Structure formats: structure tokens, C-alpha cells
Amino acid sequence: MAVKAAGTRLEERWRDILSVHARTMCEIDRVLHPHGLGASDFEVLDVLASTGSGKGHGCRVQSLVGRVHLSQSALSRLLGRLEKDGLVVRSVCAEDRRGVYVALTDRGRRLHGEVLPLQRQVLERMLDG
């Protein structure tokens, strides 16, 4: 009986985590929508900003996959949209032609700076309770 009760508690905790995640992502989507971004868009911009992907620097797309919790194909589509909007630029790695780097553009860095406080406010409101 104790094993079943422990399993039930784990399931409840897991569902609570999923619920907080879903509500938080929806709220981030809502506050970023007027800026033309969604929560996943922001996560990519945020990771790129934190890796120092400025002029001449980039982050390998493959390393982004594990950090933003998107499939390779979903990330590729998202990067295509961000690139079309002038927020990121992709380039092929000179040493390894299979590798692709992505970096923030100046416009992407400015937009990230504008919306960062909004995203952090949502995190405070949703997670500090």
C-alpha cells in the first residue's frame, strides 16, 4: 500500500509541475505577443543573449536543442521565423560544414533587452508563490 501511495504522490507532484509550466508558458506568450514573440521565441533569444552571441560569435544550433527543449525540426522552423524577422542570423561553420551557428542580430539583441523584464516579471509572479 505504501508503494502505491508514494506513486500517487509522485504523480500529483508531476502534474503540479506540468500545470505550473503550462500556466507560466501561456502567461509569457500573452505578455510577449504584443512584441511579436512567443515563449519559445524568447527562450531562444535569451539563450543566445546569455552565450554572448554578438558580432562574430554564435551558438551551434545543436547545442540550442538541449537548452530550449524543442525538437530539432521545431527549433529549425522557429529559427527560420526569427531569421525572417531579422532577429537572428544563421551561418555555416567554416571548420565543419555540417555545423550551423546562430547569433542574435543587433535588432534581436535590442528586442530581447526590451522584453526581458516582462518575462522575468511573469516568472516572479508565477513561481514565487
Report on the architecture of this protein:
The longest helix is centred in the first third of the chain and has 31 residues, at 2-32. The protein has 129 residues and is mainly alpha-helical. Helix content is 67%, strand content 9%. The protein has five helices and three strands. A hairpin with a 7-residue loop joins strand 2 (88-92) and strand 3. It has helices at 2-32, 39-50, 61-68, 72-84, 106-127, and strands at residues 59-60, 88-92, 100-104. Strands 1-3-2 form a three-stranded antiparallel β-sheet. Helix 2 packs across helix 5 (106-127).
Q: Which features characterize this protein?
A:
globular, 3 strands, mainly alpha
